[in-house]
Structures are given as C-alpha cells and as structure tokens.
Recover the amino acids of this structure.
C-alpha cells in the first residue's frame, strides 16, 4: 500500500482586498486590490484550506460599506469577505482532517486559515450527488436560503399559490423548483427579461412569469393569481413588495429574503410601504430572516435538496469563471 502524498504547503497566498467603498454607486473593479502574502504557520485549532470555488452575492456589497449591516463592516485593506468551497490541506483542529471538503467563509483568497469557530460558518459538505461547485450554489447557502426561506419561514403547504421575485437569481431559481417538488399550486415568478421569464417556465418549475421591466405587476398578479398568493418569497422589496401586498390571499405569508431594489439608495431614500394595511386586512405575516441564523437546519435542507436532485426535480445553472 502506498502512503497518500502530503499536500505541498503554499509559499504565498493571493488575496483580493478591499480598496474603496462603493458608497451610493455600483461596485467597480478598482474597489479591490490584488495582493500577495505569505501563508502563516497554523496555531492550535487552526486549519488551512485551499480554495476551490468562490461565490459572488449581493450581500457582499453590504460588507464593503461602513454601516451597520448583517455583519461587521470590512476595514479598507482587509481580505474581501465571501463564501467558498475548499479542501482542507493541513489541520490542527480535531474536527477537520486533510481532504475534508468544506464550504464556509473563506474570503477572496487562494488559501484561508480558520479556527473552525462559528464566525467561519464552516460546513462539511455531506452530499456527493452533485459537483462540489454546488456547495456555493444550489447545495450551499444560496440553495439553503431557497429551501428554508420557503418551507420554514414561508410555512409552505402543498397546494399553496407561490409568488417569487428575483425568480431567476441564485436563490429564486431554486424556489420555484422546490415549491413544485413539494406540491405547490400555482407558482409565479418575476424577473427582468423575456429570456429569464422563458427560462423560469421552461426549466425552473414556474407556471408563469412576469417581466417587471415591461409588464404591469398588479394587473398580471390579478390575472395569474385571482385568489392572491399564499406565500410570497421576496428577494426584491420596494414597489414589488408594495404591489404584492394588494394581492394576498387570507393568512398569506411573506418570506422576506432580500430587498435588492433598495440596496444602492437605501441610506438616502429608504422605501416606505404604502399598502402595509393589507397585512392586517388579510391576517398576513411578513417574516424576515437571515440564513446564517438557521445554520442548525443546513443538514436538513441539504438532504432534502439532494433528494430532489436525485428525483430529477431540481436542476441548476452555473456561471464558472
Ligand atoms: N435573507 C438571507 O439570509 C439571504 C440569503 C441569500 C440571499 N439573500 C438576498 O436574496 C436576494 C437574491 O440573492 P441571489 O443570491 O439570488 O442574487 P443574484 O443571483 O445576484 O440575483 C439577483 C437578481 O435580482 C434582480 N435585481 C437586481 N436589481 C433589481 C431591482 N432593482 N429590481 C428587481 N430585481 C432586481 C436581478 O435579476 P433581474 O434581471 O431579474 O432583474 C438579479 O440578477 C438578494 O436580495 C440577497 O441579498 C438573502
């Protein structure tokens, strides 16, 4: 029997750091700076991870600002925060061994060091049914957001009429399929182009889709869901949420996942809901969530979604650069 070759320890680590904050504007390439640093020796309890995949997500814009968000703002010069999939190549932590595949807060760097504490949100990937890259997609926090946001936060029941905004994004593209797999009634998606709307209906489990850039949301809600929706999985906020409030069935649940339409202007012009009285009139619930607070439920979400993949109920698209 031959011993497994020891992984070679890297001499240097390439890291993308934060150079400028995108205050009131979109993110630019010059907001980041590429640097190279030595990889330090591991202290007790630490593990060294080689990055395999990194993800890009809307919340990262929030990390780059200097305000109160879900997490502590990043200092200028700090390694850009972000999740990824990696392989453990050295470990002084009893819970991790070389060869383990993890997804967690690796940061935008080739190698990362973690002490395995809750901050890093390390999750050992259990499933082997789909490629490891899905650990930052459909079988990672993005997918867990779709599943837990619909099932737990939205208290989905078979037969429910489901409305999803941002339906063609990373999160929304799984919500329709999960709802379909679990026996939803009508599933309506909202997206920003005809191509995306076509994809929603052809491949992603939606019965119909509305292009919010060219079509009137209110009249299409009335036509497509005459009794209103039971669950609204909202990624967008702003006028989309406000219009949806007029189209709720009684006891509707709104799972408030994101407010992407408000991210850039939020500080100066926070959106004020006009139709909130309908939350009362329809005995509805509006429940926000932050996926990192649902960590204990990740294994359940992963197992459920892996089973949907095995049954051919759940597919995904990836854009790997
Ligand atoms: N609560 C949580 O813990 C949690 C976890 C993960 C993500 N999220 C949130 O969920 C949302 C979706 O995340 P994701 O990872 O799916 O993002 P994503 O893959 O980047 O998709 C975002 C999509 O939102 C749409 N969009 C952008 N600006 C918009 C606007 N002004 N109005 C309407 N739609 C707009 C765009 O699609 P179109 O071309 O269709 O406009 C965009 O592709 C974000 O708000 C994110 O912050 C929350």
């Amino acid at each position: 029997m031959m011993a497994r070759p020891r992984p070679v320890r890297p001499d240097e680590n390439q890291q993308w750091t934060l150079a400028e904050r995108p205050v009131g504007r979109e993110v630019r390439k010059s907001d980041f700076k590429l640097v190279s640093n030595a990889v330090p020796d591991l202290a007790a309890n630490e593990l060294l991870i080689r990055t395999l995949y990194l993800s890009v997500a809307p919340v990262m814009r929030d990390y780059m600002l200097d305000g109160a968000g879900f997490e502590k703002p990043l200092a200028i010069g700090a390694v850009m925060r972000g999740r990824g999939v990696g392989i453990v190549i050295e470990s002084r932590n009893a819970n991790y061994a070389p060869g383990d595949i993890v997804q967690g807060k690796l940061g935008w760097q080739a190698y990362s060091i973690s002490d395995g504490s809750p901050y890093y949100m390390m999750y050992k990937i259990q499933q082997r049914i789909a490629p490891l890259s899905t650990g930052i997609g459909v079988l990672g926090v993005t997918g867990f957001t779709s599943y837990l946001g619909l099932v737990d936060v939205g208290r989905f029941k078979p037969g429910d009429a489901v409305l999803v905004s941002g339906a063609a994004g990373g999160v929304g593209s799984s919500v329709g399929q999960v709802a379909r797999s679990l026996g939803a009634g009508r599933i309506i998606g909202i997206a920003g182009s005809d191509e995306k709307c076509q994809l929603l209906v052809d491949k992603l489990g939606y019965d119909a889709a509305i292009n919010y850039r060219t079509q009137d949301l209110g009249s299409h809600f009335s036509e497509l869901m005459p009794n209103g929706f039971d669950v609204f999985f909202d990624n967008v906020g702003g006028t989309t949420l406000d219009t949806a409030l007029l189209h709720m069935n009684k006891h509707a649940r709104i799972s408030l996942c994101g407010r992407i339409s408000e991210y850039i202007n939020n500080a100066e012009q926070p959106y004020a809901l006009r139709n909130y009285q309908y939350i009362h009139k329809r005995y509805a619930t509006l429940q926000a969530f932050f996926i990192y607070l649902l960590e204990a439920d990740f294994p359940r979400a992963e197992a459920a979604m892996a089973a949907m993949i095995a049954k051919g109920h759940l597919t995904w698209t990836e854009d790997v650069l």
Q: What stands out?
A: Residues 57-59, 142, 145, 166, 168-172, 191-193, 196, 235-236, 257-258, 260-261, 289-291 surround NAP (CB under 6 Å). The mean pLDDT is 94. The two ends are 38 Å apart (CA to CA). Helices lie at 59-64, 141-153, 172-181, 194-202, 217-224, 238-244, 277-281, 298-310.
